[in-house]
Amino acid sequence: MANLPKKVSDRLLLAIPKFQKVVQLAKDRDLNESDTVSILNDMLAEIFGYDKYLEVTSEVMIRGTFCDLAIKVDDKIQFLLEAKAVGLELKDTHLNQAINYGANHGIPWIILTNSIDWRLYRIRFEQPIDFDLVCSFNFLTLNAKSNKDQETLLVLCKEGLTKCAREDYFEMVQNVNRYVIGQIILGELIINDIRKELKKLSEGLRIEEDVIERIIRNEVLKREIFEGDEASRAQQKVAKLYKSKSPRIKKPQNDMSEQSVTPNDSAKNDKSITEKLLEEANKPNM
Question: Which CATH fold topology does 6-173+259-282 show?
Answer without folding.
Answer: tt1808, chain A (3.90.1570)
